[in-house]
């Protein structure tokens, strides 16, 4: 409440823009990598739809998106 009193309500949304952009990029990377890896892992895991192929695709996509997002977040925080 002290921030609102001192700087006004708009001070609460000061860092919102870069955060939304960063997580938008992370989501786009995660979705794109997941959809790209899904056919590859389906062919590696005996061709038919199965949970292991989807799980492997999701883990790789999430890991890559996190590797990309972490340096961006660290830079944003330091600014």
Description:
By secondary structure, this protein is an all-alpha fold. Helix content is 80%, strand content 0%. The protein has three helices and no strands. Helix 2 packs antiparallel against helix 3. The longest helix is centred in the middle third of the chain and has 29 residues, at 16-44. The model has no long low-confidence stretch (mean pLDDT 89).
Task: Summarize the entry for a quick read.
By secondary structure, the protein is an all-alpha fold. The chain is 80% helix and 0% strand.
Which descriptors apply to this entry?
79 residues, mainly alpha, 3 helices, 80% helix, 0% strand, elongated
Helicity level: over 70%
How far from one another are the termini?
24 Å
Main beta sheet, described?
A: none
**Order of H and E elements:** HHH
Low-confidence regions? none
Q: Count the strands?
A: 0
Multimeric state: single chain
Question: What's the gyration radius in Å?
Answer: 19 Å
Number of helices: 3
Structural class by SSE content: mainly alpha
Average predicted confidence as pLDDT: 89
| Principal-axis shape | elongated
Amount of beta strand = under 5%
